[in-house]
Amino acid sequence: MALMNRRHALGTLAAGVCGALAAPVMAQAAERFPARPITLWVPWPAGGATDVTMRLLAELAGRQLGQRVIVDNRAGAGGTLVMPILQQAAPDGYTIAQLPQPVLRAPHLQKVLWDPIRDTTPILQISGVTFGVVVPGGSALKSLDDVFAWAKAHPGELTVSTNGVGTTPHVVFDELCAKRGLSYVHVPYKGTSEQMLAVSSGQVMVGINSNGFAPFVDSGRLRLLVTFGEQRTKRWPAVPTLKELGHGIVATSPYGLVGPRGMPAGVVAVLHEAFKVAMNDPAHVAELAKYDQELAYLDAEDYGRSLKEGFAGEKRVVERMGLNKGG
Question: CA 118 → CA 84, 122, 305, distances in Å?
């Protein structure tokens, strides 16, 4: 018995020594961070509005970090494909991702193997987007009411494109139509550029997406009917919002950066400070302005709190709309 107790004591002591030794090693690794390039995953195709702004942000942050921040794209599935990457990545800070709003919604719509709160470490919130409904510049549809009237007169014939199943544009438009008993043909696209070309060329009648439509609207190739923000945009002050039209919907899909679960606080702090400086750089602010975006900064703690609130809010929306598929 004495021998067993001695072995137990030695085992406990060894574990304590190993833990004590491991802590400084982890701390030293954090102090040396980053020692090599960082990969920033963007869940949208290259060339779109979000991709362009994120690439500039990555370049600016890389200057602060003293290492390159390499942007890699993983498009599809409504912007949720970064989650499996984060789940499998080491929590060392060398793999991070842009986290879009659909990631908070998807687990309530279908069964997934990841959890956006459990499996991520928040770094900071960056901005939100301006969503809107667009039609071809020469379309006879001049307002959102015109769209609803056409859909009512032609049941199941209205073609509506979004940036994916379960994305904010899809969920918002589906809710608007459901309240009016309207049916439509949903045409999802992986990227904004491809989608806007399809709408402007008349392949689909209506497009709903984020501010990547800006150049098309400014050039007259598309007509912007309504936006989803709290108030009218500075860029298109004549365009009404869903809220002021009485639809009671405000959607801006704030986004930020996260890493895998369990990232050391020191690594998070380094990344946070670098990207905070980068996001406030005049070049980045100007790039956001091209798409009618503004900074919406939250630090890691507040961003984490916001993600939890957003996750719970998305569950309520999905349940209210009856979209829960038993995930």
Answer: 13, 11, 13
Domains delineated in the chain: 34-128+253-321 (3.40.190.150), 132-227 (3.40.190.10)
- What is the strand order of the sheet 38-42 is part of? 69-73, 38-42, 95-99, 255-260, 120-127, 295-298
Query: What pLDDT digit, counting tens, does each position of 231-261 carry?
Result: 999 899 999 999 999 999 988 889 999 999 9
CA-to-CA distance for 303 and 295, rounded, in angstroms? 14
Map tokens 């869940």 to a residue. Answer: 43
- Angle, helices 168-180/300-321, rounded to nearest 10 degrees: 30
- For 192, half-sphere exposure in the C-beta direction (CA atoms, 13 angstrom radius) is 28
